[in-house]
Amino acid sequence: MKFCKFIAFLLIICFVLFGYSCRTLGLNDPEKRVRKQEKKEAIKVQKAHKAEVKRHYKMQSEDTQKRMKKNLRNARKKNKSKKKKSKWKCS
Q1: Whole-model pTM?
Q2: Residue 33 domain-assigned (yes or no)
Q3: Containing domain of residue 44, as a range?
Q4: More confidently predicted of 17 and 25
């Protein structure tokens, strides 16, 4: 019985160490690190662009804001209808 527990303990230790080493190897992968950094930069650029658009919108007069909002709503509707009419199927 003690031998079985000892073998089970060794197996658990081996699985834990093997799993940890695989994770660290994945983190040290330079290609993965570059992809992750590019993804972070893309998110930063998107946030900055969104903030700039919002700032520009807030600087406009009330009438202009209404017109911009209406144009945006119409553009969204137009884009939705374009997507529905598409003959391409994603697979």
Answers
A1: 0.45
A2: yes
A3: 19-54
A4: 17
